[in-house]
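Morning!

This is the sequence you dropped in the shared folder:
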Amino acid sequence: MKTLLGNSLSDTPNIAPCKSREDNPDEILPEKFDWREKYPECVQNVTNQGNCSSTYATIATSTVADRICQQVKKPVQLSAQEVISCDKGNYGCEGGYATRALNWGKRKGFVPEACYPYTATKGQCDVEDHLESNECRRNSIFYKVIDYCLAQDEGDLEEWPRGRSDGRLH
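The structure's back. Tokens below.
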């Protein structure tokens, strides 16, 4: 398992690494890239997590929302709260793994924030009942993750949120 700053990037060692410059030497990467300049319509507000350690869920949903906005040129907010309340593979407001949240996105998809607003609490969620009763899910309004990769070393990341010694993010 790859670690950075003493914290695991993932609890799953079998996630494909991101392609590096060495994998594609003809691709020219810029020396500097500012998302805010390139995609100003996609810049999201910072989520006030309240008293809920939900970085893992906000990282996953924000990353997917960024990629959607990058393609369609319209901002979308995805529900971190649904992941906090319904994803049994993580620990609700006690933290969790971004990779597990992304796996929820692969299996179930992420609904828009308006469909499951942020409350900064671990709500009660019977997953099967929720998947059938949530209006957005009934109307197929959700975004599925097709695939993702993990950065493999410090050179792939400029900053990474600090996590816990067990790899879970706050």
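Headline: The first helix runs from residue 35 to 38.

More detail when I'm at my desk.
O.
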